[in-house]
Specification:
The chain is an alpha/beta fold. The protein has 9 helices and 11 strands.
Length: 252
């Protein structure tokens, strides 16, 4: 084969193919914050948006559920005297603020984005309608879900599990600052073992903090796989959707 033919063959090499066509990315509120996980850090939000763009460019439909712990957390508010249901509603409003910040970063990168809220606030976000969310995905838009489930006493982990099943996602990608699930805290135990794959039941028996119990039960009952991975390592989200062995897979 001549060098010219080799060049043509190389140019025709097909792009990498994602193993998932629709994913739900779960982001904590703290991941949008500064080094202490507080407030909204523009650099952190831009980093998240850039990784989402990489995945979308592979043809993957992306939905995002974002927490609000960088602004307000209902449980901690309750501990300080705020009525629990009121505190949870305040936390839900915080998730919408984060969703708008992420939407702004994505659209500055040229990605059409829609924010849907479980709490009606027509001036800043659409109300959550499952069929409309699916239609947005089919049109190539990133959909960000804010407002949790719209109910107090439920975490954004539960919202992620619920929305993933509602919109037909193939996997929940739980973004963390750790490269997977360990049998003990790797910060305290240097000999902690990281799992590459673990079953739902094994994770429950070992009392591993994958998600809160309600969210985890939803995933278990509906056999929704979860991948826990380090979102802050460059290109890790892209590596996950390409099927590389990144983080820990929780499955049946």
């Amino acid at each position: 084969m001549t060098s010219a033919a080799k060049t043509v063959k190389s140019a025709k090499k097909s792009p990498p193919k994602a193993v998932y066509s629709r994913v739900l990315l779960k982001l904590s509120g703290e991941s949008l914050g500064d080094a202490q996980g507080v407030g909204i850090c523009p650099e952190a939000v831009h980093h998240m948006a850039a990784q989402i763009v990489e995945v979308r460019d592979l043809g993957v439909e992306v939905v995002v559920v974002v927490g609000g712990g960088n602004i307000f957390r209902g449980v901690s508010g309750s501990a300080k005297g705020i009525e629990r249901a009121t505190g949870d509603y305040m936390g839900m409003l915080a998730t919408v603020i984060n969703a708008l910040a992420l939407q702004d970063a994505l659209e500055k990168l040229g990605v059409p984005t829609r924010v849907q809220s479980a709490i009606a606030m027509a001036q800043v976000a659409e109300s959550f309608i499952r069929r409309r969310a699916v239609r947005h995905l089919e049109k190539g838009r990133v959909v960000i879900f804010g407002g949790g489930t719209g109910n107090p006493f439920f975490s954004t982990d539960t919202a992620a599990a619920l929305r993933a099943n509602e919109i037909g996602a193939q996997v929940i990608l739980k973004a963390t600052k750790v490269d997977g699930i360990y049998d003990s805290d790797p910060k305290k135990n240097p000999d902690a073992k990281r799992f590459t794959q673990i079953t739902y039941l094994d994770a429950l028996q070992r009392q591993l903090k994958v998600m809160d119990s309600t969210a985890f039960s939803l995933c278990l009952d509906n056999e929704m796989p979860i991948i826990v991975f380090d979102f802050f390592r460059e290109h890790n989200l892209r590596r996950v959707v390409l099927g590389e062995k990144v983080g820990t897979l929780v499955t049946s």
